[in-house]
Amino acid sequence: MYAIVNIAGQQFKVAKDQQIFVHRLQGDEGASIEFGDVLLVANGDKISVGAPNVSGSKVTAKILSHLKGDKVIVFKKKRRKGYKRKNGHRQSFTKIQIENIVF
Prior knowledge:
Elements: E1 2-7, E2 10-15, E3 19-23, E4 32-35, E5 38-43, E6 46-49, E7 58-78, E8 83-102
Antiparallel strand pairs: 1-2, 1-5, 3-8, 4-7, 5-6, 7-8
């Protein structure tokens, strides 16, 4: 059984007991969260596609940790003009574990 869920503006294919990294979510570590924006649910050969959401279905997950991703270096330069800019960025992520898919 799997579902396609919209989490923080991105779509993820999730299954029970799967751990995924999503953009930073509000909530404490160990807290349980619920996603009602389920776009598709598949249970064996039975597939339900929402228009836009599957009614009555939800996905529950547990927040495992908040962390930061790898550093990305942004470097801009214009040749022969003396223009150089170097910038770094680390995206904030939340690691969650899918606990249940209600169909």
